[in-house]
Design brief:
single chain, 394 residues, alpha/beta, eight-stranded mixed beta sheet, 40% helix
């Protein structure tokens, strides 16, 4: 192997996970990928090497800094035939001025610091990763790929809150997230089902963070997350949508006097974890639901909110032609897909149990008015594509 094979390194950084991938610089074909999950505990380290062999190791990883240093060492030890030419980062929130992929400069990093209140569970980790790779690979360009870009042209009615307009100018608007995932799903649909891609599509990205988006004529019309990734659907530890009066009540009557305490409550102690009182993982809750009414109620609320939002997004588009499930839950939990779709027959949505339980690509019966699909997402590939294009344009 030529020692100078140039590659794109992609970094997808969460509060407790770090995913990476290496892509050929010219063809943008995947070379290798891996992840560190459950950072801060007994972490699971997964690596698929250039030959396609998968390795899994479980070891304590104290924090994000340790995970990044572990990855940097791995890249230098195990990937010596490759030269990292550029590093692309998934950035959850770029504010009102930053949507399209751009080279990361000291000024842009300073902007990210000011935007932390809009994504406190994501941006600090992403900033940490950028600085660490800047130290490890000095002089190598880094590119920011924003999760909000896919939704930047949503119509006026979907983009703004009913609050005084001067607050819109301050950036208090609906941004939407999971855009890199939605972009990949739509890109794939264009390739193998172009007729569906030109129709009315609802995509349900269901994972620890969960959202939905509706696409018509290739454009995002609306999505469930708003100013921050806390809004919309019930999630693993995030509340989803709340009556704003709940915040006022907590501040006044329950004496939540700090932003930190409110953030901890709404982003880390709510959602499935808050309802069940223990587990935030949907598979664990499914195992517990027959003996634990709180676990059963957590699942009921999750599925109910998802069902309700499919109806709302269908109304926004004036109909639905395709429903797509993606994300960890969307991909691997047939019973959740079944419960969400149950009762949506009036929209033309139905699933066939044998196809659904088998995790087939299409789980709706042949001839259904609405095609229901299960698709794996690939944010890393979209990051790599954007990173390559951004570098070539400079």
């Amino acid at each position: 192997m030529d020692n100078q094979t140039p590659v794109i390194l992609t970094i997808n950084c969460g509060s407790s996970s770090l995913k990476f991938a290496l892509f050929d610089m010219s063809s943008v074909e995947l070379i290798s990928k891996g992840s560190v999950q459950d950072i801060g505990g007994e972490s699971s380290i997964r690596l698929i090497d250039p030959m396609g062999h998968e390795e899994r190791v479980t070891q304590p990883v104290a924090g994000l800094d340790a995970a990044i240093q572990l990855l940097i060492q791995l890249l230098k030890d195990s990937f010596s035939p490759y030269t990292i030419d550029v590093i692309g980062h998934r950035i959850v929130q770029g504010g009102a001025a930053h949507f399209m992929p751009e080279l990361i400069t000291p000024e842009l990093l300073q902007t990210f610091e000011t935007l932390i209140p809009l994504a406190p569970g994501h941006l600090p980790a992403e900033i940490t990763a950028i600085r660490a790779f800047e130290t490890a690979y000095p002089g190598i360009p880094q590119v920011a790929c924003f999760d909000t870009a896919f939704h930047k042209d949503m119509p006026f009615t979907a983009r703004y809150f009913a609050i005084p307009r001067h607050l819109w100018d301050d950036g208090v608007i609906r941004y939407g997230f999971h855009g890199l995932s939605y972009e990949y799903i739509f890109q794939q649909l264009q390739q193998f089902a172009p007729q569906e891609a030109s129709g009315k599509i609802v995509i349900a990205h269901l994972g620890n963070g969960a959202s939905m988006a509706v696409i018509r004529n290739g454009k995002s019309l609306d999505t469930t997350m708003g100013l921050t990734p806390t809004g919309g659907l019930v999630m693993s530890t995030r509340s989803g949508d709340l009556d704003p009066g709940v915040i006022l009540y907590l501040l006044k009557e329950k004496h939540f006097i700090s932003e930190r305490a409110l953030n901890e409550l709404l982003n880390k102690q709510s959602g499935l974890k808050g309802i069940s009182g223990s587990a935030s993982d949907i598979q664990t809750l499914l195992e517990q639901e027959s003996t634990d009414h709180k676990a059963a109620e957590a699942i009921q609320l999750f599925c109910y909110q998802a069902k309700k939002y499919i109806g709302a997004l269908t109304a926004a588009a004036g109909g639905i032609d395709t429903l797509i499930f993606t994300g960890g839950i969307g991909l691997h939990a047939p019973v959740i897909r079944e419960r969400i779709c149950e009762g949506l027959e009036y929209l033309g949505i139905s699933i066939q149990a044998s196809l659904n339980n088998n995790n087939d690509d299409i789980i709706s019966p042949s001839g259904s008015r609405v095609t229901v699909r299960v698709m794996a997402t690939n944010e890393e590939l979209i990051i790599a594509q954007h990173t390559q294009q951004c570098l070539q344009s400079h």
